[in-house]
Queue: 3 jobs
Job 1
Amino acid sequence: MEYKELTRALSDLEFLKKYTVYSSLKDSPIHFGQPPVLDYLEKHGDCTQTELAGAMGVSPASMAVSIKRMQKSGLVEKKNSNKDLRCNKISITKLGKEQLDELKKSFERIDCELFTGFSDEELNELYGYIERINKNLSDNMTDKKGFEKFVKKTISAEKEGKNV
């Protein structure tokens, strides 16, 4: 088998998984890129828009658009801070928690579906192969800081629904 065929198969797998996740969101008020925000709010409690933007690696302006959209869907709410009335805190609503829980169950189903028919031994073997591939690429990487920037930019763009 040629390397190109394996590379294409890995690329196809990545797109298929992304599409499956995207499809799982179609009947949900949660849009692509919002689950990490809701998850962060659930774990950290009330946050400012600036805190959220920093945690998500996006601009405050981009986070404002996302928050407004989630407010309209009833997933989050803005409250005045008790300490500083000029500052708003964002919190996840009951509906946001319920929808996030449903989404987590959906992601779990997708992961189970992805590895259906594999034995534990095969999964461990696959994991080992993937780790070796990652090591091969990272060992030969000359610009690790550039890679970190690229990852942050890519994650940020995905959260905003853009392609890099």
Job 2
Amino acid sequence: MLLKVFQKKRDYQENLLLLAMLGMSLVFLFITFAYLARKGSADWLDFKLPKLFGFSTFFMLVSSYTLYVANNAFEKQDFFTYKYLLGTTLVLGIFFLICQYLGWKQLEAQGLFLGKRAGTAANFLYLLSGLHILHLLGGMVALWIVFWKAVKKESYVDDFIHAVNPPTQRRLKLATRFWHFLDFLWLYLYIFFYLQH
């Protein structure tokens, strides 16, 4: 079954992205397994999951939806809506990052600073959310490049030529796949921590 995924005709960039997402998934999966294995150890301090992580989850879900609608607008050659929704997706990504930072501040307010004093449980949360943020920043760079190349076009003809260009289509497709992957990954992490705390 897995071999069929790689046998499908794709360009090398899609295969590399697929392999990268598979690798990232395994890293996050193994870290959550390590969390479960260490749960209840002597240095385990339980904590309350920051409420702002719920808001950040909302922003991630909405950003995936706006990117989905932006792709539909791109296919329908509604370039104004496409550009607007790409920008909206980036802004929602920034809101996500702000909520993550403020969520870490809520952890600190509980006395759980990053490091030894936080205890193992909170350090796992810092590690997993921090890794996700690093990946999200990569996704935001990819989306920013797509957005910047789109907003540089001023006339409908320029937009149309830009839209039918295969590298433009591939860039949007890859950035969209990665963004949806990051959304799914954060949803997994949020549900995981929500169920644990």
Job 3
Amino acid sequence: MNVLTLVAHPQPGSFTYALARAFETGVKKAGHSITQVDLYEQKFSALVTGAEMASWKSGYVPEDVRSQQTMLKQANALALIYPVWWGMPPAILVGWLQRVLIQGFAFESGKQRAGLLDIPAQIIATIGSKDRPGERLFESYFSDLLGVFSYCGMHSHPPLACWGLNAATHQSVRNDYINAALTCGENILISNHSKV
């Protein structure tokens, strides 16, 4: 089985990439393969143009989007690994979602709305701030993306939120997050996920 993993961080030496490597190790340890897409390295265009939007009605899909859709269709699971910036994923990842998960590919709407991607999904995100439960940051940072997964028929594992990461973060905390990402990779294709 294959896991499509999207990594969205402009610096390959970042902790986001360390988490991606740990996740990949977990996936392989569980006996699966992984297709990792580095959105920044690919220079994936996050912009939906007017012409592209108009072409959705005719069924035309630009080649850069079609190649992403092909990888997703061949995948048995999807993982997104990214930093939270200003409460949301990087624009390049949001653009990927908006351009790739389009009607006719990821969902059908109308009287019988249906998500077309019946696969598990995992979010692994780094967050500079500490969790402040009274402020509902977890919900704020992840509810929209979990809603996208659900709308498209995906089943989400609980997001791995790596809170309080900055230059002063102790290595033991980083190691705990690395181990948690590895476990996410091992479990991505286990059916204990919940439909959000």
